[in-house]
Amino acid sequence: MAGLPWDWLLSPWMLAVLGLAIGSFLNVVIHRKPIMLERAWLGDVAHYLQDGSAMQRALGATAQRVSALADVGRVLGDELKALPPLTLSRPRSRCPQCGHAIAWHENIPLLGWLRLRGRCAGCGTRIAARYPLVETTTGMLFFLVAWHFGSGTTTVVYCAAVSLLMAAALIDLDTTLLPDDLTLPLIALGLLAAWRGWTPVSLPDAALGALFGYLSLWSVARLYKALRHVEGMAEGDFKLLAGLGALLGWQVLASIILLSSAVGACVGIYMILARGHGRSVPIPFGPYLAGGGVAAMFFGTTLTRLWFPA
Protein backbone atom coordinates (compact mmCIF):
# COMPACT_ATOMS: atom_id res chain seq x y z
CA MET A 1 0.00 0.00 0.00
CA ALA A 2 3.05 2.23 0.31
CA GLY A 3 3.40 4.88 -2.30
CA LEU A 4 -0.31 5.55 -2.80
CA PRO A 5 -1.02 9.31 -3.01
CA TRP A 6 -3.23 9.43 0.08
CA ASP A 7 -3.42 13.23 0.07
CA TRP A 8 -5.02 12.99 -3.38
CA LEU A 9 -7.21 9.94 -2.71
CA LEU A 10 -8.52 11.46 0.52
CA SER A 11 -8.85 14.99 -0.84
CA PRO A 12 -12.24 16.68 -0.46
CA TRP A 13 -13.12 16.46 -4.16
CA MET A 14 -12.16 12.80 -4.51
CA LEU A 15 -14.14 11.89 -1.42
CA ALA A 16 -17.09 13.93 -2.69
CA VAL A 17 -17.15 11.74 -5.79
CA LEU A 18 -16.83 8.62 -3.64
CA GLY A 19 -19.63 9.93 -1.46
CA LEU A 20 -21.93 10.19 -4.47
CA ALA A 21 -21.26 6.53 -5.27
CA ILE A 22 -21.70 5.48 -1.63
CA GLY A 23 -24.93 7.47 -1.51
CA SER A 24 -26.22 5.51 -4.51
CA PHE A 25 -25.57 2.27 -2.62
CA LEU A 26 -27.17 3.71 0.53
CA ASN A 27 -30.38 4.22 -1.44
CA VAL A 28 -30.43 0.46 -2.02
CA VAL A 29 -29.72 -0.23 1.67
CA ILE A 30 -32.43 2.18 2.81
CA HIS A 31 -35.02 0.57 0.54
CA ARG A 32 -34.13 -3.12 0.85
CA LYS A 33 -32.74 -3.63 4.35
CA PRO A 34 -36.11 -3.16 6.16
CA ILE A 35 -37.81 -5.55 3.73
CA MET A 36 -35.07 -8.13 4.24
CA LEU A 37 -35.37 -7.81 8.03
CA GLU A 38 -39.16 -8.03 8.02
CA ARG A 39 -39.11 -11.10 5.79
CA ALA A 40 -36.65 -12.75 8.17
CA TRP A 41 -38.84 -11.89 11.16
CA LEU A 42 -41.94 -13.24 9.41
CA GLY A 43 -39.99 -16.40 8.67
CA ASP A 44 -39.34 -16.77 12.40
CA VAL A 45 -43.05 -16.22 13.08
CA ALA A 46 -43.97 -18.90 10.53
CA HIS A 47 -41.56 -21.31 12.19
CA TYR A 48 -42.88 -20.72 15.71
CA LEU A 49 -46.52 -20.94 14.63
CA GLN A 50 -45.75 -24.48 13.49
CA ASP A 51 -44.10 -25.37 16.81
CA GLY A 52 -46.98 -27.00 18.67
CA SER A 53 -45.11 -27.25 21.97
CA ALA A 54 -44.27 -23.54 21.90
CA MET A 55 -47.89 -22.62 21.12
CA GLN A 56 -49.12 -24.74 24.01
CA ARG A 57 -46.62 -23.26 26.45
CA ALA A 58 -47.06 -19.64 25.40
CA LEU A 59 -50.79 -19.55 24.67
CA GLY A 60 -52.18 -22.57 26.46
CA ALA A 61 -53.60 -23.50 23.09
CA THR A 62 -55.77 -26.59 22.62
CA ALA A 63 -54.88 -29.28 20.09
CA GLN A 64 -57.39 -27.81 17.65
CA ARG A 65 -55.98 -24.31 18.07
CA VAL A 66 -52.40 -25.61 17.71
CA SER A 67 -53.37 -27.23 14.40
CA ALA A 68 -54.99 -24.00 13.16
CA LEU A 69 -51.95 -21.93 14.08
CA ALA A 70 -49.68 -24.44 12.34
CA ASP A 71 -51.78 -24.07 9.18
CA VAL A 72 -51.33 -20.30 9.34
CA GLY A 73 -47.59 -20.77 9.81
CA ARG A 74 -47.36 -23.08 6.79
CA VAL A 75 -49.28 -20.63 4.59
CA LEU A 76 -47.08 -17.76 5.72
CA GLY A 77 -43.93 -19.84 5.18
CA ASP A 78 -45.06 -20.83 1.68
CA GLU A 79 -45.77 -17.19 0.77
CA LEU A 80 -42.30 -16.19 1.92
CA LYS A 81 -40.67 -19.02 -0.05
CA ALA A 82 -42.57 -17.95 -3.18
CA LEU A 83 -41.05 -14.47 -3.06
CA PRO A 84 -38.04 -13.83 -5.32
CA PRO A 85 -34.70 -13.67 -3.46
CA LEU A 86 -33.82 -10.22 -2.18
CA THR A 87 -30.35 -9.07 -1.13
CA LEU A 88 -28.50 -5.80 -1.31
CA SER A 89 -27.02 -6.87 -4.65
CA ARG A 90 -29.82 -8.90 -6.22
CA PRO A 91 -32.02 -8.42 -8.12
CA ARG A 92 -30.85 -5.51 -10.24
CA SER A 93 -32.60 -2.22 -9.62
CA ARG A 94 -35.78 -1.92 -11.66
CA CYS A 95 -38.63 0.49 -12.12
CA PRO A 96 -41.42 -0.64 -9.75
CA GLN A 97 -44.04 0.39 -12.33
CA CYS A 98 -42.90 -1.21 -15.59
CA GLY A 99 -40.03 -3.47 -14.50
CA HIS A 100 -37.49 -1.67 -16.70
CA ALA A 101 -34.00 -2.78 -15.61
CA ILE A 102 -31.94 0.31 -14.86
CA ALA A 103 -28.92 0.44 -17.19
CA TRP A 104 -25.49 1.31 -15.83
CA HIS A 105 -25.51 4.74 -17.45
CA GLU A 106 -28.91 5.47 -15.92
CA ASN A 107 -27.56 4.51 -12.51
CA ILE A 108 -24.63 6.96 -12.45
CA PRO A 109 -25.05 8.88 -9.17
CA LEU A 110 -26.87 12.20 -9.65
CA LEU A 111 -25.95 12.46 -13.35
CA GLY A 112 -28.16 9.52 -14.29
CA TRP A 113 -31.18 11.12 -12.60
CA LEU A 114 -30.47 14.47 -14.23
CA ARG A 115 -29.99 12.88 -17.66
CA LEU A 116 -33.35 11.09 -17.33
CA ARG A 117 -34.93 14.33 -16.03
CA GLY A 118 -36.17 12.42 -13.03
CA ARG A 119 -38.27 9.92 -15.01
CA CYS A 120 -38.04 6.24 -15.87
CA ALA A 121 -36.60 5.60 -19.33
CA GLY A 122 -39.12 2.80 -19.87
CA CYS A 123 -42.47 4.24 -18.82
CA GLY A 124 -41.82 7.85 -17.85
CA THR A 125 -42.84 7.37 -14.22
CA ARG A 126 -41.35 10.03 -11.98
CA ILE A 127 -38.27 8.95 -10.02
CA ALA A 128 -38.33 10.38 -6.51
CA ALA A 129 -35.96 13.30 -5.94
CA ARG A 130 -34.92 11.63 -2.71
CA TYR A 131 -32.50 9.35 -4.58
CA PRO A 132 -30.24 12.12 -5.90
CA LEU A 133 -30.73 14.02 -2.63
CA VAL A 134 -29.27 11.12 -0.62
CA GLU A 135 -26.38 10.85 -3.09
CA THR A 136 -25.70 14.60 -3.02
CA THR A 137 -25.95 14.84 0.77
CA THR A 138 -23.55 11.93 1.24
CA GLY A 139 -21.11 13.48 -1.24
CA MET A 140 -21.28 16.84 0.53
CA LEU A 141 -20.71 15.28 3.94
CA PHE A 142 -17.71 13.31 2.65
CA PHE A 143 -16.34 16.57 1.19
CA LEU A 144 -16.82 18.42 4.49
CA VAL A 145 -15.24 15.62 6.53
CA ALA A 146 -12.14 15.64 4.30
CA TRP A 147 -11.99 19.45 4.28
CA HIS A 148 -12.32 19.66 8.07
CA PHE A 149 -10.19 16.71 9.22
CA GLY A 150 -7.62 16.38 6.44
CA SER A 151 -6.31 13.32 4.61
CA GLY A 152 -5.86 10.93 7.51
CA THR A 153 -7.43 7.95 9.21
CA THR A 154 -9.91 10.13 11.09
CA THR A 155 -11.45 11.14 7.77
CA VAL A 156 -11.81 7.51 6.68
CA VAL A 157 -13.47 6.56 9.98
CA TYR A 158 -15.84 9.52 9.96
CA CYS A 159 -16.86 8.93 6.34
CA ALA A 160 -17.72 5.34 7.23
CA ALA A 161 -19.69 6.61 10.24
CA VAL A 162 -21.55 9.16 8.08
CA SER A 163 -22.61 6.34 5.75
CA LEU A 164 -23.96 4.26 8.63
CA LEU A 165 -25.75 7.27 10.13
CA MET A 166 -27.33 8.26 6.81
CA ALA A 167 -28.74 4.79 6.22
CA ALA A 168 -29.90 4.38 9.84
CA ALA A 169 -31.60 7.78 9.95
CA LEU A 170 -33.59 7.32 6.74
CA ILE A 171 -34.60 3.74 7.52
CA ASP A 172 -35.86 4.94 10.90
CA LEU A 173 -37.69 7.81 9.22
CA ASP A 174 -39.41 5.43 6.79
CA THR A 175 -40.15 2.49 9.06
CA THR A 176 -39.31 3.43 12.71
CA LEU A 177 -36.71 0.63 12.59
CA LEU A 178 -33.05 1.03 13.50
CA PRO A 179 -31.36 -2.18 12.30
CA ASP A 180 -28.65 -3.76 14.44
CA ASP A 181 -26.76 -4.23 11.16
CA LEU A 182 -26.11 -0.47 11.23
CA THR A 183 -26.02 0.51 14.91
CA LEU A 184 -23.75 -2.29 16.15
CA PRO A 185 -21.11 -1.69 13.44
CA LEU A 186 -21.11 1.98 14.48
CA ILE A 187 -20.29 0.96 18.06
CA ALA A 188 -17.58 -1.41 16.84
CA LEU A 189 -16.14 1.23 14.51
CA GLY A 190 -15.87 3.78 17.32
CA LEU A 191 -14.19 1.35 19.71
CA LEU A 192 -11.81 0.00 17.05
CA ALA A 193 -10.85 3.49 15.89
CA ALA A 194 -10.15 4.58 19.46
CA TRP A 195 -8.11 1.43 20.17
CA ARG A 196 -6.02 1.87 17.03
CA GLY A 197 -5.61 5.63 17.49
CA TRP A 198 -7.40 6.46 14.25
CA THR A 199 -9.45 9.20 15.92
CA PRO A 200 -8.59 11.67 18.70
CA VAL A 201 -10.83 9.78 21.14
CA SER A 202 -9.10 7.55 23.69
CA LEU A 203 -10.29 3.99 24.21
CA PRO A 204 -11.54 4.65 27.80
CA ASP A 205 -13.53 7.67 26.56
CA ALA A 206 -14.97 5.62 23.69
CA ALA A 207 -15.93 2.76 26.00
CA LEU A 208 -17.55 5.13 28.48
CA GLY A 209 -19.28 6.87 25.57
CA ALA A 210 -20.83 3.59 24.42
CA LEU A 211 -21.89 2.68 27.97
CA PHE A 212 -23.27 6.09 28.96
CA GLY A 213 -24.89 6.57 25.55
CA TYR A 214 -26.88 3.37 25.90
CA LEU A 215 -27.74 3.78 29.56
CA SER A 216 -28.79 7.43 29.30
CA LEU A 217 -31.60 6.80 26.80
CA TRP A 218 -32.45 3.45 28.39
CA SER A 219 -32.98 5.23 31.71
CA VAL A 220 -35.18 7.90 30.13
CA ALA A 221 -37.24 5.24 28.34
CA ARG A 222 -37.73 3.18 31.51
CA LEU A 223 -38.77 6.26 33.49
CA TYR A 224 -41.22 7.29 30.75
CA LYS A 225 -42.75 3.81 30.69
CA ALA A 226 -43.08 3.80 34.48
CA LEU A 227 -44.88 7.15 34.41
CA ARG A 228 -46.99 6.76 31.25
CA HIS A 229 -47.22 2.95 30.96
CA VAL A 230 -46.27 3.05 27.29
CA GLU A 231 -43.02 2.63 25.41
CA GLY A 232 -41.50 6.02 24.61
CA MET A 233 -38.33 4.94 22.84
CA ALA A 234 -37.00 1.80 21.19
CA GLU A 235 -33.77 -0.05 21.85
CA GLY A 236 -32.40 0.97 18.46
CA ASP A 237 -32.15 4.56 19.71
CA PHE A 238 -30.09 3.39 22.71
CA LYS A 239 -27.67 1.55 20.41
CA LEU A 240 -27.42 4.48 18.00
CA LEU A 241 -26.43 6.88 20.79
CA ALA A 242 -24.03 4.24 22.13
CA GLY A 243 -22.41 4.19 18.69
CA LEU A 244 -22.07 7.96 18.65
CA GLY A 245 -20.59 7.87 22.15
CA ALA A 246 -18.07 5.23 21.08
CA LEU A 247 -17.16 7.25 18.00
CA LEU A 248 -16.92 10.72 19.57
CA GLY A 249 -16.41 10.09 23.28
CA TRP A 250 -18.66 10.45 26.30
CA GLN A 251 -17.95 14.19 26.55
CA VAL A 252 -20.24 15.07 23.61
CA LEU A 253 -23.21 12.92 24.64
CA ALA A 254 -25.00 15.71 26.47
CA SER A 255 -24.66 17.99 23.45
CA ILE A 256 -26.03 15.32 21.11
CA ILE A 257 -29.00 14.60 23.36
CA LEU A 258 -29.84 18.27 23.92
CA LEU A 259 -29.49 19.21 20.26
CA SER A 260 -31.45 16.24 18.93
CA SER A 261 -34.16 16.65 21.59
CA ALA A 262 -34.57 20.35 20.85
CA VAL A 263 -34.84 19.83 17.10
CA GLY A 264 -37.05 16.77 17.53
CA ALA A 265 -39.40 18.66 19.87
CA CYS A 266 -39.73 21.56 17.41
CA VAL A 267 -40.44 19.24 14.50
CA GLY A 268 -42.89 17.20 16.58
CA ILE A 269 -44.82 20.28 17.68
CA TYR A 270 -44.96 21.51 14.08
CA MET A 271 -46.25 18.16 12.80
CA ILE A 272 -48.93 17.97 15.48
CA LEU A 273 -50.14 21.56 15.13
CA ALA A 274 -49.66 22.22 11.42
CA ARG A 275 -49.83 18.76 9.83
CA GLY A 276 -52.36 17.04 12.08
CA HIS A 277 -49.91 14.32 13.14
CA GLY A 278 -51.56 12.11 15.76
CA ARG A 279 -50.11 12.46 19.24
CA SER A 280 -50.15 8.70 19.68
CA VAL A 281 -48.27 8.07 16.41
CA PRO A 282 -44.55 7.65 17.16
CA ILE A 283 -42.07 10.11 15.66
CA PRO A 284 -38.70 8.49 14.88
CA PHE A 285 -35.89 9.86 17.04
CA GLY A 286 -33.06 8.26 15.07
CA PRO A 287 -32.80 11.01 12.43
CA TYR A 288 -32.37 13.65 15.13
CA LEU A 289 -29.75 11.60 16.96
CA ALA A 290 -27.88 11.08 13.70
CA GLY A 291 -28.06 14.80 12.89
CA GLY A 292 -26.88 15.69 16.38
CA GLY A 293 -24.04 13.20 16.02
CA VAL A 294 -22.88 14.72 12.73
CA ALA A 295 -23.04 18.19 14.28
CA ALA A 296 -20.98 16.98 17.25
CA MET A 297 -18.49 15.39 14.85
CA PHE A 298 -17.68 18.83 13.45
CA PHE A 299 -18.47 21.12 16.37
CA GLY A 300 -18.34 18.93 19.47
CA THR A 301 -16.16 21.18 21.60
CA THR A 302 -18.04 24.32 20.54
CA LEU A 303 -21.42 22.74 21.30
CA THR A 304 -20.26 21.55 24.72
CA ARG A 305 -19.08 25.06 25.59
CA LEU A 306 -22.34 26.49 24.30
CA TRP A 307 -24.51 24.23 26.45
CA PHE A 308 -22.15 24.16 29.44
CA PRO A 309 -20.09 27.36 29.57
CA ALA A 310 -17.18 27.18 31.98
Fold and architecture overview:
The protein has 310 residues and is mainly alpha-helical. The chain folds into 2 domains: 35-115, no CATH class; 152-307, no CATH class. The chain contains 12 helices and no strands. The protein has helices spanning 6-9, 12-49, 52-59, 63-82, 111-115, 130-149, 153-175, 180-196, 203-228, 235-248, 253-274, 286-307. Helix 2 runs antiparallel to helix 4, helix 2 packs across helix 6 (130-149) and helix 6 (130-149) packs antiparallel against helix 7.
Global geometry: globular
Largest sheet: none
Order of helices and strands: HHHHHHHHHHHH
What is the count of β-strands?
Answer: 0
Counted by DSSP, the helix tally is 12
Helix content: over 70%
Question: Helices and strands: which structural class?
Answer: mainly alpha
Oligomer: single chain
Number of discrete domains: 2
- List the uncertain runs: none
- In angstroms, what separates the terminal alpha carbons? 45 Å
Radius of gyration (Å): 22 Å
Average pLDDT value?
88
Strand content: under 5%
List the helices and strands and how they pair.
Blueprint (H helix, E strand, L loop, with lengths): L5 H4 L2 H38 L2 H8 L3 H20 L28 H5 L14 H20 L3 H23 L4 H17 L6 H26 L6 H14 L4 H22 L11 H22 L3
Short description:
This protein has helices at residues 6-9, 12-49, 52-59, 63-82, 111-115, 130-149, 153-175, 180-196, 203-228, 235-248, 253-274, 286-307. It is mainly alpha-helical.
